[in-house]
Amino acid sequence: MANNIKVDDNFILDIKRLGINGEGIGFYNHVAIFVDGAIPGEGHNVTVTKVLDKMAFAKTVEIKHISENRKIPECPYYDECGGCNTMHISQSKMAELKRDILIESINRYTKINTKKFEIKPTVTSNQFEYRNRSQLQVVKNNIGSSVAMTKANSNIAVSIDNCLVQKNVINELNNKICKLIDKLNISIFSYKNNKGIIRYITIRVNKKGDALVCIVCFEKSDKVNELAKEVIKLDNVIGVYKSFNNNLDSGAEIVGKDIELLEGKACIVETLGKIKYQIYPNTFFQLNSEQAEAMYDIVLKSCKLSFKERVLDAYCGVGSIGLYLAHNAKEVIGIEYNKDSVIAATENAKLNKINNAKFMQGNAHELLPKLIKDGVTFDCIVVDPPRTGLDDKFINAILESNVKRLIYVSCNPSTLAKNLGRLIEKYNINSITPIDMFPNTALIESVSVLTLKN
Predict the structure, then answer these.
(1) Which CATH architecture has domain 10-65?
(2) Is residue 340 classed exposed, middle or buried when 0-12, 13-18 and 19+ CB atoms within 10 A define those classes?
(3) Mind giving me the DSSP string for 197-208?
(4) Is 311:380 a contact under the CB 8 Å cutoff?
(5) CA–CA dist 354, 350 (Å, integer)
(6) Residues involved in catalysis
(7) Whole-structure pTM value
(8) CATH level 3 topology of 133-269
(9) Cβ neighbours of residue 222 closer than 8 Å, sequence gap 6 or more
C-alpha cells in the first residue's frame, strides 16, 4: 500500500505533468498518482483504482478545473481505440509537453544539468493522415468484416472504418479489401476457437500513394490467392503478398517469416530528400515519411559534413540515415545485426548509385573496435538504436573510440537519458531536438548532438 492510499479513496488531485504514456500525473501524500486523460494544470476529483508500492492509479470522477489546452478529440473512436492517447490536448501544448517529458527523463535518471545545453522546441508534424503503414486485425461483426484496433489495456477489438492518423488511401483500401473478403466468403480468424483464415491486413504506402498489401493468414488456403487477384485490381495497389502466421504470442511479429509475393511488384519506393528507399512488407521504415525527412535533415546538419569525413552509421537498418548522409561524406560505413536489413541497405545504395557507403552485418560493439584496430578512423558516429537504447558494450566502444562527434537518434527518452548519463564521461551535450514523429500520442523522437571533451 502506497503511503496509506488505498483503492476507492477519493480526493482532489492537481495534475503536475504528463507521463510517457500520455497519462496525467499528480501527487497525493507524496505518492505519484497516474490519471488517464488528465492534462497538466488541471484539477481532478479522482477515485483510486490500483495501488502499487511507489505509485497509484486513479480515474476521473469530475474535472474541477479544465485546462485551456483541452479540446474535443476529432476521432469518434478515441475513447475506445488504443491507438492515440493525447488527442484531447492541443497540438501546441503537446509540443511543449513532449519537450518537458524529455527534460524530466534526463532529470530523473541522471545528474545532468539540462540548463547547460540547448533543448530546442519540438519539431511538429501534421496531426492527421501521417501514418504510412497499418497493421490491423480483421474481425467479423454484424455488418461484415472490418479492420480493428485493440482497446487500451485489454484484448477487446474495436472496429474502425476511418483512422484519422493513417493516410486516407490506407483507410479506403482496408474497407475495400474487407468487402472483397466477404464477397469471396473467406473466414476470419477467431481468438475464441483459434480457427479461421484471415488474421491481419497490413498496408504500406509511399508519398505518391502507391500501396503494398500483405494478407496475413492463420490457416493456409488457396482462397487467399483468389483474394490477391481481386486486391491487385484496386486503385493504388501495386503489389500483394500473403503471409502465414499462427504464432499466438502477444509480442510476436504480425507479418510472419513465411511470406510470398502473389501479385504485382515486390516493393514500393519512397523518396526522402534525394534518396530512394525500397520498402517491403517487413522492412523497418519510419511511419511518418514527411517527419522522417525533417529528422534526417537535422541529423545531416548536426554531422557538419564537408565531403571529407568518414561516418559510422550504427544500428543502420536498411541504410535510411547513412544513405541520406552519403552525398556529403567521404565514406559511410553502416553496421546492422539483422542480415536481411543489411541486404536491403546494400540494395538501396545501388538504387541510388551511391558508391561511398557499405554495410556490415554484426554487433556494433564488436565491429567498431575491430575497424579502429584495422586502421579505420571515424569523424562522426550516428546511432539510431531501438527503444532499449545502446547496450553497455557499445557505449564502452564509443568511449574508447574517441570519435569527435556523436549524433544520437532516440525513440525513448528514458533509455536516452540513461545512455547520456554514461556518455558524458567523455562527451559534452551540445543540443537535443525533440521531434513529434507520432502526433496524438506521447511518443517522442529526438536528435542529440554530442562532441568529445577537450
Answers:
(1) Beta Barrel (2.40)
(2) middle
(3) SEEEEEEEE-TT
(4) yes
(5) 6
(6) 411
(7) 0.94
(8) OB fold (Dihydrolipoamide Acetyltransferase, E2P) (2.40.50)
(9) none
